[in-house]
User: What shape does this take?
Amino acid sequence: MGVLRVERTGPSGLAARASGVAWRDYDIQLTVYAVLLAALGLAMAYSNTTAQAGATPGTDTTFARGVVWAVFALVAYALATLFDYRWLRTLTWPIYLVNLALLAATLVLGSSDAASARWISVLGFQFQFSELAKVLMILVLARFLADREARLDSLASIVGAGLIVGPPWVLVMLQPDLGTSLVFIAILVGMLFMTGASLRWLGALAAATLAALPLVWTYVLHDYQRERLTSFLDPARDPLGAGFQLLTAQKAVSSGGWLGAGLTNGPQNRADLLPVQTTDFVFAILAEELGFVGGLVVFLLFAALIWRVLAIAWRSRDPFGTAAGAGIASMILFQLMVNVGMVLGIMPITGIPLPFITHGGSSLTSMAIGLGVLQSIAIRQRRAEW
Assistant: This one.
């Protein structure tokens, strides 16, 4: 009996490999780690709602909305797993245009929050399309890099990848959303590095980027963004203004000790002193109520999740699958490092969510779709046998 390996990814190629689905290759660990992290996120939403309301959460609360979004994310994850990822590779460029259209629509129709326009109301729910754009961008870059697998040591391939990321990056910056724009750059660099791009050219481009930072600081960033970026260096300079969030977050973390004050019992949480404590600064409340041990569990779960993401990427016989896994791992790792880092005061405050833990349906659903695509890759790597 011979083995047929079909490299095409169009409809005819998909039909020829229809028997290649192997559910025994489904990565159950990936699912378990993601669900546990999402459960921690729901626990923090429950704690936040209960501590502030002083009663069991009702139907229109942070926790109730979190449950609805968790169910929606599970459905999205299942659908993405069942959907043959090779169709995504075939439809890469239409996906890219849809991505640009969604980001442009956010600028025109998005709800305002201070100086930002980031959310669009969909059936009564606020959806942030820049979160979905991260995953869609990974798929587009994966196709581009997979098609140039043998030429990634060339400057043209690296510049081409940068040009693809450029338009959505600009649209996100115009919202303005500095945090998400930084995630785009981290995804690009991570995917180039892990798919074998030339380190020499990457280093040269990094040097050029550093040289351009003064121009970005002066002409691109808004005043409030510059203030947030510098406040972590000396938060005590303006303890009731720019430094208030960081000082309060550090107080919450330090008061948690080894085991924390217990769910719903955090002093900062109950007093509602920390702005955006259900979103950007949720880790501060987690550390306050679950302590060092709780924070350590979060880090271990993230480490295990990233390990499973990379395992699927390394096992993939398709360079598209390898590149997609590299992008998702880069996205999760960067957001983890920056979010926790800004809570601890070792990173600038940029408004980057903590995956699965931060309350937000857009972030959770987008992560679910990304992991679902990875599962689709995992179960469709076997060759059709004849």
